[in-house]
Design goal:
- With about 525 residues, the chain is mainly alpha-helical.
- It has 3 domains: about 30-210, Growth Hormone, Chain: A (Up-down Bundle), CATH 1.20.1250; about 225-280, no CATH class; about 285-525, Up-down Bundle (Growth Hormone, Chain: A).
- The chain is built from 22 helices and 2 strands.
- Strands 1-2 form a two-stranded antiparallel sheet.
- α11 packs parallel to α19, α14 packs parallel to α19 and α19 packs antiparallel against α22 (about 480-515).
- The longest helix is centred in the C-terminal third of the chain and has 39 residues, at about 415-450.
- The termini are close together.
- About 50% of the residues are buried.
Length: about 525
Amino acid sequence: MNRSSEERDRVKRPDGGRGGGPTATAGAPAGRGRVVAALMLCMALAALDSTIIATAVPQIVGDLGGFAVFSWLFSGYLLAVTVTLPVYGKLSDTFGRKPVLVAGVLLFLAGSLLCAAAWDMGSLIAFRILQGLGGGALQGTVQTVAADLYPMKERPKIQAKLSTVWATSSVAGPALGGLLAGYADWRWIFLVNLPVGALALWLVGRHLRESLPARDRTRRPRVDWPGALAVFACGGLLLTALVQGGTAWPWLSAPSLLLFAGSAACGVATVLVERRAAEPIIPGWVWRRRTISAVNLALGAVGLLMVAPTVFLPTYAQAVLGLGPVAAGFVLSTMTLSWPVSAALSSHVYNRVGIRACAMTGIGAATLVLLAFPLLPYPGAAWQPALIMLALGAALGLFQLPLIIGVQSSVGFAERGTATASVLFCRQVGQCVGAALFGAVANTTLNGRLAAAPADIRTGLPGDLDSVSHALGSAGALTDRAADYLRRAVDATVDHVYLGAAVAAGLAFLILLVLAPRRFPVYGEPEDAEGAPRG
């Protein structure tokens, strides 16, 4: 077996190499289903919030104004979720999952209620950030509680259910947001969270049980608040630079350079603070253990590649294929249909060949699928990219879920929240990096094609990717020849983005090949335990 001595010692020790912290999470067998229902409702809050607002932006801007800054409705929420993930992970290991989950739901609902009462765009953005502070607790803690409730062999079942929540939300969210904004009021988009969250709170409070050892009741928990503030500052500055760079200001402008410099300085401060802390927010073992560090890096690469389908495919479907927004959404949604099915079946694969081999098979297939996208004919038919997305979802289902389960199964209860949060944090950061990187690739390709346009059709062509759909949808704005040239330019732009995504998938494959152990360690199982789940 190829694992470090630290991992071997930790797997054999009954406390996972650490002391203290909660030792068990229980929903009694009869009530475990109700706890799962609560987790699905909590996940639905976070999942719907990511999709339901997009279709209501015109109504929100029309009512509150602030068109120049409306993108912060999404960026502010994303920043808050991402920078709080490691903090909530550590808090759940220190104080237990239940109080962190309850606090997250309460924060999310308070933010939702205040968003519904917003009086201008600035207040709405501020309340969206408050929602994000709760959303960070929901995403990480739900995944951790799910791992606490089920042994390794059964975890794909609950994880598949949680994946189904995301899949359903990706399809239903835009439609529900459009209906509420068009036939009621956009404020109902936030108010619908209240009954869902209230039911989740009731189920969590009544059925989720945790037990703490007696020694932990007498020992005062220590929270690394300086480390938490350092993580907030470093992550906030870095993600703001990545999200706004090239959009709100040029990459080499003073704001970008100051933000990157500030994030680097805060990063150094974070390392120094965390090395001195007795209970650091981001412990060093997260990166010293090959299992966790390899998965963190691999999922960061996958977060990067996910930008291609989620951000650029809708533009391709509308600009190149001529589909409407709803039909373009359904082309993307085919990925979310195959993903949970593949994830649910992944246990049959990794129990036979191991977690690393299963994940490498999935990401290898994803690389080939992404490489196939530029081979689609122009202009093609809608079923062709839909089939590509269906295959991509199936491949990524074999990749992501086994790795998350492998990390959660390699640690004990007192470390599981931190380990899970580190994985989700790296994936979120990868998405931010991908948005910045592929945005630059897309703009460079499109600008090059537009600059090379024949002089007789150059007039009237849009200057950026965001204006393409509007230009093609405006009757008489472009001649037939200019419209065809623009569609071909968009087709080439998205092809380049998918090639970049294939490179990211290949990078994830190499990370697993070089860094990940051949057999993932399983906490509490002797090395040669008969019948132990294969990693």
